[in-house]
Amino acid sequence: MKGEKYYSVRMRASQNGSHEEGGKHISGGERLTTYSGLKQAINALLDKSLAHSRGQPDFVQIQFETVNQPIKLLHPLQVNTNQVNSIETGKELAVELLKYAGVPSAVIETAHQQTPEYSEVRGAVLIDIHSGKRIDGRKEKGVRVSRIDWSDTNFRMWATKHDIPLKSRIKEAIALATKVCDHPAVIAEFCFSDDPDYITGYVAGKKLGYQRVTKLKEYGDENGCRIFFVDSSRNLENCINDLEKQPVMIHWGDQDAN
Ligand code: WAQ
Ligand code: MG
Question: What is the role of the protein in this entry (predicted)?
Answer without folding.
Answer: Catalyzes the transformation of pimelate into pimeloyl-CoA with concomitant hydrolysis of ATP to AMP.
